[in-house]
Q: What sequence folds into this?
């Protein structure tokens, strides 16, 4: 979340407890929730205070699976090397990976979500089509010399296969709305305006679909954080069984030349 948007009233609506019970969003944890709700639905319920519908559960599951694991990314390397240095503190190794959630890795979903949300609003305010709004915005980004959020990928070409799968699912299940449409039109417009192909990446597909399903914009970054935590724990467990943390560190050291005189 990039900023505080509410005012403090000294209260919380998430949970409370007493000697014999725990209440979560107005429901009894033991009687109403444990054994009756899956973790994806529970995450949504905790976040917004109401149980998700079938499509919200389906796509939240889908995007979490899509982003949980993507090889030896910088966040994974940080976690595995941290665990190698301090195997008594699994939580520190997980934290080391999550702390790198920023504008380039993982956190870029938040930037893309804000871009898509603003684009859909501008399209409505201008009274034109999504396609016209995307074209105008892309042209302005080129004039300003700014990078378009959600476009480009260092590994996947000519498409990010995860994006393709998620968008096809959204279309086939009838949930692709204005945010997904704006994302697709932005990709088309960018190819035309910059005269080269841009890959629509997973960090844009996630907010496009989830915003169409009324997921709160301010919590978009939480999706890749939650998903990648799952993947990091798997990597850390593997590190405990098949260590490569110090190997990665030593290889990194050999690739960097000293130029300090």
A:
């Amino acid at each position: 979340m990039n900023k505080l948007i509410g005012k403090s009233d000294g209260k919380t609506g998430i949970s409370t407890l007493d000697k014999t019970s725990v209440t979560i969003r107005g429901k009894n944890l033991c009687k109403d929730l444990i054994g009756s709700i899956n973790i994806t639905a529970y995450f949504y319920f905790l976040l917004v205070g109401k149980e998700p519908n079938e499509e919200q559960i389906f796509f939240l599951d889908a995007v979490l699976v899509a982003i949980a694991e993507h090889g030896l990314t910088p966040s994974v390397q940080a976690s595995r090397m941290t665990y190698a240095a301090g195997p008594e503190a699994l939580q520190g190794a997980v934290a080391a990976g999550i702390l790198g959630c920023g504008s380039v890795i993982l956190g870029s979903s938040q930037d893309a979500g804000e871009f898509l949300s603003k684009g859909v609003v501008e399209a409505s305010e201008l009274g034109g089509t999504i396609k016209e709004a995307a074209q105008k915005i892309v042209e302005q980004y080129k004039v300003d010399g700014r990078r378009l959020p959600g476009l480009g990928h260092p590994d996947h070409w000519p498409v990010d296969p995860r994006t393709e799968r998620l968008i096809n699912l959204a279309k086939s299940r009838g949930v692709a709305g204005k945010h997904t449409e704006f994302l697709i039109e932005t990709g088309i417009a960018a190819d035309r305006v910059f005269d080269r192909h841009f890959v629509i990446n997973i960090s844009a597909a996630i907010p496009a679909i989830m915003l169409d399903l009324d997921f709160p914009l301010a919590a978009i970054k939480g999706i890749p954080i939650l998903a990648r935590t799952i993947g990091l724990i798997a990597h850390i467990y593997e590190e405990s069984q098949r260590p490569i943390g110090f190997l990665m560190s030593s290889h990194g050291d050999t690739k960097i030349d000293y130029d300090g005189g």
